[in-house]
Amino acid sequence: MSDTHHITVLLHEAVDALDIQPSDIIVDATLGAAGHSLLIAEHLGKGGTLVALDADEKAVAQAREKFMKVAPNVRLWNANFREIGPLLEQIGYDKVDGILADLGWRQEQFGGDDSKGGGKGFSFRVDEPLRMTYGDPESYAFTAHDIANAWEADSIATILRGYSEEKYAWKIAQAIVAARAEGVIETSGQLARIIEAAVPASYRHGGIHPATRTFQAMRIAVNDELGALETFIAQALAHLAPKGRLAIITFHSLEDRMVKHAFRQAAADGKGDVVTKKPIIPSDDEVAQNPRARSAKLRVFSRNDS
Ligand SMILES: C[S@@+](CC[C@H](N)C(=O)[O-])C[C@H]1O[C@@H](n2cnc3c(N)ncnc32)[C@H](O)[C@@H]1O
């Protein structure tokens, strides 16, 4: 993709799913480039509130000026959505009317074909320090640098299989461990070259870059993305006001499965209803305009009225 600007996925579908009333308190747990948040703000009146957060400090800094002229009260936070419960309690909103999460990352955080990367080592296309943390690396248990330089091959292969179904998981894991003999693996570019050299030529000429799955798996592991999502869903459900809506857009099957099961369980526990028996997916037009949308799935849960 040569356009490195984020295009919001399922914009109207996700905002409509929140069923916003002008005086609602709505939370956008993944502010990003503020596409959803700006449309949410349009639905809210002066008495309404938008609380928007993002783990990436740059997203929050860049969004501030976009909200200068909107009607509702807007509160922006640099925070991880796994902390949504404590955050809402701390700022005084015990119950809210709607919560949206649009998972994953923005194009500019990864760097596109011809762009500079986002500086975090997410992209195999640019040479940056290997890190892959959305927030401050000091607050993470480990970074991609640790995986590449300190983990055993078995553990590396396990995350490659589990988080991205990489079919050459073992070959790649062994190659990473072997490459340490040449020195420390410092950058995303170095790691990408090690992966390219480890896989069969046919894989190098396939539909996706051979490092795509390895980078995805490391990113999920470093950021504990599935753990964060599980915690987020539980806390979000606990903070929904009667009839409040939780809408989540996912981009891969592991996440979608987690959302589907959590919503079903919440319904079985009598907390409310799954609004989307089948996930809402982007139209053909949207996918044609934004290929990144092709794997998106939106699921919506509605809290019961007590
Ligand atoms: C797909 S983008 C959201 C785009 C946004 N909906 C828009 O319309 O511009 C996902 C955003 O979620 C953020 N993010 C990912 N994981 C997060 C987490 N655990 N907590 C908070 N933000 C997170 C990323 O930094 C990224 O900016």
From TrEMBL:
GO terms for molecular function: rRNA (cytosine-N4-)-methyltransferase activity. It is an enzyme of class 2 (transferase). This is Ribosomal RNA small subunit methyltransferase H. InterPro entries: RsmH, SAM-dep_MeTrfase_MraW_recog, SAM-dependent_MTases_sf. GO terms for cellular component: cytoplasm. Residues 275-306 are annotated as: Disordered. Specifically methylates the N4 position of cytidine in position 1402 (C1402) of 16S rRNA. Keywords: Cytoplasm, Methyltransferase, rRNA processing, S-adenosyl-L-methionine, Transferase. S-adenosyl-L-methionine binds at A34, G35, H36, D54, F81, D102, Q109. It is found in: Cytoplasm. Belongs to the methyltransferase superfamily. RsmH family. It comes from Candidatus Kaiserbacteria bacterium RIFCSPHIGHO2_02_FULL_50_50. The gene is rsmH. Its EC number is 2.1.1.199. SUPFAM superfamilies: Putative methyltransferase TM0872, insert domain, S-adenosyl-L-methionine-dependent methyltransferases. NCBIfam families: 16S rRNA (cytosine(1402)-N(4))-methyltransferase RsmH. It catalyses: cytidine(1402) in 16S rRNA + S-adenosyl-L-methionine = N(4)-methylcytidine(1402) in 16S rRNA + S-adenosyl-L-homocysteine + H(+).
